Amino acid sequence: MIKVGIVGGTGYTGVELLRLLAQHPQVALQAITSRSEAGMPVAQMFPNLRGRVNLTFTEPSVDNLSQCDVVFFATPNGVAMKQVPELLAKGVKVIDLAADFRLKNPVDWQQWYGMPHACEDILAEAVYGLPEVNREAIKKARLVANPGCYPTAVQLGFLPLLKAGLVDANSLIADAKSGVSGAGRKAEVHTLLCEAGDSFKAYGVAGHRHLPEIKQGLQHIGGQAVGLTFVPHLLPMIRGIHATLYARLTQDVSDLQALYEQTYANESFVDVLPAGSHPETRSVRGANVCRIAVHRPQGGDTVVILSVIDNLVKGAAGQAVQNMNIMFGLAEDTGLMHIALLP
Fold first, then answer.
1. Which residues in 244-273 are b (16+ Cβ under 10 Å) and which e?
2. What DSSP letter does each residue of 224-275 carry, written as one string?
3. Does the entry feature the keyword Cytoplasm, yes or no (predicted)?
C-alpha cells in the first residue's frame, strides 16, 4: 500500500483528491493537514466522505508527513516550495497541484506570481506532470508539478497538430471557459452565486497566469516557440472546462481525424470523438478524461479543436492520482475508472 499525505485538504481540489484516494485499492491515507481546521474530522467538513475517510485534519508537520511515501500539496501558490525540499530530503515523493514547480524559469515565476522562488535548485528537477507528454520522466521523478486545468485542456487539444508540425505555431488561439470551482473554495465577491449566476464573462485577457505554462508546454511539444492568444472565461456552472482552439494549417492534411485518433490510440484518458462531434462538459463530469473533437470548417485552412475536461479531475486531482500511479509503477488507470456523472 502507498502511504499518502495531503497538505491543504480543505479546498475543492483537496476534497476531490480525498474522494479518489479513498477508493484507490493501493492507497492508505495517513495524514490530511489544515492549519485552520486542525482537530476537525474530515467527514464533518465533507459529509460525502462519511464512512470512507475517518481521519481528522492535523497541523502540517514534516515529522508526520515524512512517514508517507508520497505527499500531495493542494495548497495556494507559494506554499509547497517552502516545504518540499525537507520532504524530498527525507525520501518522500511529492506531487504539487499548485503552480510552484510548473514554470522552469524562476524569472517567469516571479513575474506571474509576484514572489521569488524559494528553491530554484529543486525547480530544475521537477517534472511537468502531463502524462501524455512526459510519462517516462514521471516514472523516475521525485517531484511532479501537476499541470493547471486550462493548460491540460489546451495542450492536449493542440498536441497532435504541433507534434506533426502541421500548423503555424505563431498564431494559435485558445478560447477557454471554466466553471466557478476553478477559482477555489474561498470567499470572493466575483464567485458568489448572485455575481456569477446567470452571467458569462471573459477575464485575464491582458495576461493570465496559465499563459506562460501553456506556452512552455506547447513549445516543448512542438520544439519551437509559440505565439498564443489565450482568453479564459467564467461560466455559471460548478465544474468543467471547454476549450475551443484555433490553428492555421501550413500544409494540406488529408485526414485530421485519423491524426488525432492515432496520436491518442493508446491513451486511457484522452477520448477522440467521432468526426463531426461536439463534446459537452457534462460528458466528463467526475471523470479523469479529456474528450476531444477536431473540425475543419468548410475544408479551409483553419482547424478548430474542441477539448473538454472536468477541471477538478483531469484538470487537477485525477491527473495527480494518474501521476502517482505512474511514479509507483501501478497501472495508470488504477482507481480512476469512474464513469462521468449524467445528468
1. bbbbbbeeebeebbebbbebbeebbbbbbb
2. S---EEEEEEE-SSSS-EEEEEEEEBSS--S-HHHHHHHHTTT-TTEEEPPT
3. yes
**Cell 466575483 belongs to residue:** 190
How deeply is 335 buried, as exposed, middle or buried, from its count of CB atoms within 10 A (0-12, 13-18, 19+)? buried
pLDDT digits (tens, 9 = 90+) for 275-323: 999 999 999 999 999 999 999 999 999 999 999 999 999 999 999 999 9
Grid-cell match 530544475, residue found:
124
Q: Is the peptide bond between 343 and the residue preceding it cis, with omega within 30 degrees of 0?
A: yes
Q: What is the dihedral of CA 51, 98, 30, 68, to 10 degrees?
A: 160
User: What is the CB neighbour count within 10 angstroms for residue 128?
Assistant: 23
Q: Per-residue DSSP letters for 98-134?
A: SSTTT-S-HHHHHHHHSS--S-HHHHTTPEE--HHHH
Cβ proximity of 100 and 80 under 8 Å: yes
Can you give the pLDDT at residue 330? 98
C-alpha torsion sign, points 339, 239, 95, 270: positive
Place of cell 479546498: 11
Is 194 tagged catalytic? no
303 Cβ neighbours under 8 A, 6+ residues apart: 161, 167, 246, 247, 248, 249, 256, 294, 295, 296
- Looking at the chain, how many residues does it have? 343
Query: Identity (one letter) of the amino acid at 293?
Result: A
Q: Is the pTM of this model over 0.90?
A: yes
Give the integer Cα–Cα distance in Å for 176 and 158: 13
How many CA within 13 A on the CB side of residue 47? 0
What does the block give as the cell for 77? 501558490
In the chain, what are the domains? Answer: 2-125 (3.40.50.720), 149-311 (3.30.360.10)
Within 10 A of 206 (CB to CB), how many other CB atoms are there? 6
Q: What is the pLDDT of residues 86-126, one digit of tens each?
A: 999 999 999 999 999 999 999 999 999 999 999 999 999 99
Q: What is the phi/psi pair of residue 241, to 5°?
A: -130, 135
